[in-house]
Amino acid sequence: MIASLESLQNLVSNYGTYHNITTLGMIIVVILLIVSVYRMLKSFHPTMVVFVLGILTCGLFLYWVHNRNEPAFMTPAVEVVAGFLPKKGELREYETPK
Prior knowledge:
Layout: H1 2-15, H2 18-43, H3 46-67, H4 75-82
């Protein structure tokens, strides 16, 4: 136990910059969040999980259609739908009242 603590202390003293420790902390928080969300989703009915994931997928797809920043493998599917849905256009500037 003491040897492992000494090796951990040596590791932190050699590579323990502010950014490295912050990144490690963020990784730990993300892992804890993933585990908690997984446990929460396990308690739901499977139909509800599929429904929520479907809504999120549709939202992501519509975002890709609107901004046209889809991944390359999704371009054929987005091209089919892009003709029917609104897309991001030029920004219009309005005159300010005088």
